[in-house]
Amino acid sequence: MGMPRAERPLENGPLREFAAGMRQLRIDAGSPPYRELAVRAGYSPSVLSDAANGRKLPTLAVTLAYVTACRGDIAEWEARWRALTEPVVVEDGPCPYVGLSAFQADDAELFFGRERLVDQVLELLRNRRFVGVFGASGAGKSSLLRAGVAAAGVWNALVVTPGARPFEELAARLSTSVEELAEHPSNLALVLRQQGVELLVVDQFEELFTLCPDEDRATFVAALMHPALRVLIGVRADFYGHCGQFPTLVAALDGGQVLVGPMTADELRRAIIRPAAVADCVVEEALVTRLVADVGNQVGALPLLSHALRETWHRRQGISLTLGAYEKTGGLQHALAQSAEQTFNALTPSQQVRARQLFLRLVALGDGTEDTRRRVPAAELDPAMPLAELVAARLVTQDRHGVEITHEALIRHWPRLAGWLADDRDGLRVHRQLTQAAEVWVSLDRDDEALYVGNRLARAQEWADDNDTALSVREADFLRASQSLDRATTAAARRGARRLRALAIALAVLFVLSTGTAALAVQAVLARQTTESQRDAAVVDSVALKIPGLENSGNPSLAGKVALALQMLAPRTNPGVLANALVRRELLTGATTGAGFSQSAKRLVTTNADGTIQVWDLTGHEPTLIASRQESVPPVSVTLSPAGDRLVTAFPDGKVRVSPLAGDGTDTAWLSDTAFPAAPSQVAGEQMQLWQVKMSGPPVAILARPGTGPIATSADGQVLAFADGEGKIQVPGRHPMVIDAQLNHVQAVGVADNGDVYVRTATGLSSWHTDPKLLHDTACRGGPISESQWQQYFPGLDYRSPC
């Protein structure tokens, strides 16, 4: 007879205790070999060995045969066996598996399997202030951050998700105002420190890129970069590249990243067995083996595993989670779909329609990434939606911020939802844009400027006609307001067209009556029948001749508007005519000898023959004088620094002075011929000196030599312009432009921010190129040309104000 076979140690739990009792029974019987017990019991040695190994509960017949062979108490062991198999009442305690939900800090005692990763993240946070946790959807990032790191007690942690308005979420959690947090990047760190928060955990960081507006996203990232903050972020792996949009975020994550991969087999066993042990239950070894095999190396399978275990828990036998119960759930791949289908099919037909609308709202369509869940505020929901039923089934989660899908696994593993999303993705994008537009409209106090017009309104209305029940109250109000505005605008346009037609007919009748001849009437009719282009050309040619008179009529603003309209009707018109009308009023008439713009073109500096230098603000309806200075020697040229806060003045002796506006001269800087020389450049056959002047903005290159005419520079120092002694305007790198045969006819030279050169002579102003936006803004500063003014200069042409 051989020695009894050594048996493996048992883990804790009721099933293990039952198996341990059977082993002890064999020991008390003298530890007979299983071959000898088999003869006594009538079962094979392997069956008896399996009965005592603690992997699964043996049948009652095998149990009693084993006890009989070991001479144990049959009645006692039958009672013990039945105690393990009797149904457990619902009130025996909460389920130890969270299903699709993430483990929270309160669930820390049930969170197993990620101990190694938790220690890795904690160690990184001890040595650096910013750490990022990356992983696929379903890899367990949220549970790691919440039930692992935040619940570890190393730091007082605050866990948030960004949502569409990250500062609103933080303000609600910190009992402060959104304005206080967002006003300055350092405010968030200050408020957190005041409230004792040592670690800010930002879970689902990808919501910054799927839900958050660009401006709020940039402001929030800037606040997280404050050196006084210790920050931990959780990011879905397919949004890793999006983080590269922010150089500061890239630098903060350098060396501080943790990748969450699939669990090992041992980690999975702990995640499966230990939560059940906390609840005084056991997981059949055959089920553990099956689950480990089903999960394998799938990165995003943890929510499916937790959901399947939760469904198995509800089907358990006594205190045992069995393989048979697991298979009834549909298994790892089908348990979630089966639960969702059962919940959906239990709804009434009208509830099913509303449930479909709700789920489509809860998904943010991916753009180069997988679809993600979207948190929907309560104001966007229809009260008729079956929210209570879906929350009870744990398919959606509701809190004070709104509603969201419990986990994105539902998007990928519920075929019905996947089908809804695939039916009309373009329509869903139209709906999502409508939702966002309606939200902006409400935030702007229902301003008409935020309403839909044109093609956007047509597309939204077409979608709404097919999905009218899917609209929220806010969206329906937005569409109605957009339609009302569109009808009013159309009606106004029609009234204007009718007035123009009536006026044209009246003029034609008056014309016919005044001539008293049918021949002239026929000529008028024929003239009206000429092509639109010929008519426009005739009107343009006529108006172009009136521009000089308009400039001197005491209404230069109207001259600019008419010239801009002229350019719109006939782009072939000489741009010099337009530039003359628009910029002449900005350079001011009179004895102006020099002028220059600030970088933003919001300020203008001029100098007169008597040495007076004046700085004008151009942002109002008319130029406003904001600074003045008198020089004893009239300067050759003046210009402004990029910020418009310093003057650059060139004098006849070749010296250039940089001085602050309204300064007293004590901090002026004089540049002599030996100061800061750069490489000389050959211009117009002579050696010229180039100077670099450091101001509040980019360096400004100043060219100066005795006898040079007016000069000017661009704000970035890349363009120089000056008048030479031959009546030409020279710009290094360009062909010279002949303005006048006499140098003294060149009154001023200016270089706009885009490099366009403006030249003022005694006969007007011309340019090589004209910046359309600058000219448009200049002409339209006083408002658009009125319809009556339009008809005065462009009779018969449809009113189309360029402003």
Automatic annotation (TrEMBL):
Keywords: Membrane, Repeat, Transmembrane, Transmembrane helix, WD repeat. Pfam families: nSTAND1. It comes from Kutzneria chonburiensis. Coiled coil: none annotated. The chain crosses the membrane at residues 502-526. WD repeats lie at residues 597-626. This is Novel STAND NTPase 1 domain-containing protein. Residues 96-448 form the Novel STAND NTPase domain.
